[in-house]
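Progress narrative, Year 2. Work on Contains N-terminal Zn ribbon domain (YvbJ) from Fructobacillus evanidus advanced from sequence curation to structure prediction during this period.
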Amino acid sequence: MGQSEWRNAFKEKNGREPSLDEFKQAKKNGFALPKTDLPNEADLKAWIRGFESINHRRPTVEEVKQQKNLAENPVDETATNQEQTPGNQPSQPVQPVQVTQPAEPIQQEAEQFDRRRQQKPAQPDDAGQEGGNNHRNGKKKSSKKRKWVIFLLAVAAVLIALVSYGYNYYSYANSLDRAATALKTYDKDKYQNITEWSDSHKKMTTADLTPLANYMQDQKMSKSDTEDWIKKSGKGVRFVRDGQTLLIFPHYTLEMDPVDLTVNTNQSGLSISVNGKVLTDKSDSDYSEMLKHQAPGLYNFTAQGNLNGQNVNTQSSDYYGDNSSDTVDLNIKTVSFTVESNIDGGDVYVAGNKAGTISNGKADIKNVAVTKGAKVYVKSGSGSDAITTSSKSLSSIDDGDTVDLDSDSILSNSDAEDQLNDMASALTSYASSDDTPSGLGDIFNGGSSNKSYQDFSQMIHRNRYAASRNANTINFGDISVDQVSAKSKKNADVTFEIKEDFNYTSDTDPDKHTSGTKTQRFQLIAHMVYNSSKGKWLVDSIDPNQKKLSDDDNVN
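Result:
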């Protein structure tokens, strides 16, 4: 074969120009083509694409190597065809490819693909069946995913609701409401759930909480007043946030400041007790005992015994907790004094014992043996209708003193005077016009149907039209309140003075033609009641037991 023919044959077979070494080798061989060449890279790639098209997958490394061997060592096609059977015949005949040198990049690509293929499940030959399975599996996976999403959303909604409820339940306002509700039960076991010592933050015992329960029961505050009380500072009780509940919610509690109480007495042979607990059965003249770390609240100290032949049974009750330490003075003294009060008929209590009754605005208390810290007050009635004055300590009262103990919760002198002046104006209006005046319902209990008003109107009509000498006009006024005596929170007696002017003209005296004014002054008692719907005191009746104070006749 000549040089040109060899070159053309090489290009046709290999698709390229021969290299210099290939040309030299061919020249040595007399430009004879070898029977076999290694498959070139283009042929091997073409073979791989054909394999993928027929088998729907990439060939393995072993299959690539096998193809290379076939290209390098071709076999007899006749013999090969005779050995093949329908069962193992490939879907397409594999054509040997001759190349001049090994196609190393193609082999590496096949090896990398084979590794990737081993990491993933091989696709089955039955593409239709696998596709159906994938579709069903996809539906199952999608359904499971949706269920998980719904479940997680439901859990999140529940958690959000619980957290929202928790912040509302453990809020300051709701915690304060629960604390006030618990305090109003006066139950020391319930108090334990809402209190702790401020210094140690430890829970308190029911014995510790007795003074607080005593105070709440004694005061009988409303729920709103209880909330206001525990929010105030200075009483040794504070409503504060002291940590967390369930790690995220605020926790509030009543912190109680401890107080040290020192109890003293100057008398021997007395039994000293506090809130029913005996401190000593027999005191000496300089007895002193300190009660350490006590809770704020109401303490009732008692001293009982015999002093100079007189039986002594005195009490000293007070709220302790404003200060970190305090002194309880149970020194005994004998004292006489006078109590004046607007609670007529009310009982006077000295050191917790009834010592007298208010009569005509006062009561004389004689030779009572009391402690210096004891208190005196006046009380009338019982239950919700009871009236109790504020207390005064006997430490500021000397022998022969007068103590004023008026109640601020009853009708005052000024309010009583205003109401009685309104009554006098209404009576004067009727006397001048004979017409029932307006606004009687705000003066008399029952308005114009009130018996006392009817008594006044009849007296006016008689003196103007049916007397031996008829008055031209009648005036009422110049009210002066002498005393207001409370019978209960809604009942009071007002002792007052009123002037009545009867004016005469000469027309009613045909013989002498005299004229002038006759003036009388009376002391009356008005029984008054408090009308809740009107929010004011009304005259319920005028006591028939009246007293004429003066009678001036200036008619001439």
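The mean pLDDT is 83. The first helix runs from residue 3 to 14.
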